[in-house]
Amino acid sequence: MAATPPTKQSLLHLYHSMLRTSQSFSSYNFRNYFVRRTKTMFREIQDETDPTKLTAFYNEKAKELAVLKRSAIVNQLYGGWRLVVEDQKPVRDRGDT
């Protein structure tokens, strides 16, 4: 029984979901690590044509996306100070509008 490979559209959707979730980390280091990692993983599978490998990749990354979402939520709950390398939001006083 041959496995039906995921469509290119479903792989792109998974890729964008993983990137979006990676961007939601409040920690600069985690955020940049997961963005780089996601881009690297999908770049490696880009030219793959074997349906079995594509299906296994898609299933594995779909599970990983669920873990990534939960991790991002926890990271947002316990987010710390912004680092110097991040864009700083201006500090506003009560009198500023």
UniProtKB/TrEMBL annotation:
Signal peptide: none annotated. It comes from the Eukaryota. One of its GO terms (cellular component) is L-cysteine desulfurase complex. InterPro entries: Complex1_LYR_dom, Complex1_LYR_LYRM4, ISC_assembly_LYR. Residues 10-65 form the Complex 1 LYR protein domain. GO terms for biological process: iron-sulfur cluster assembly. Belongs to the complex I LYR family. This is Complex 1 LYR protein domain-containing protein. It comes from Ganoderma sinense ZZ0214-1.
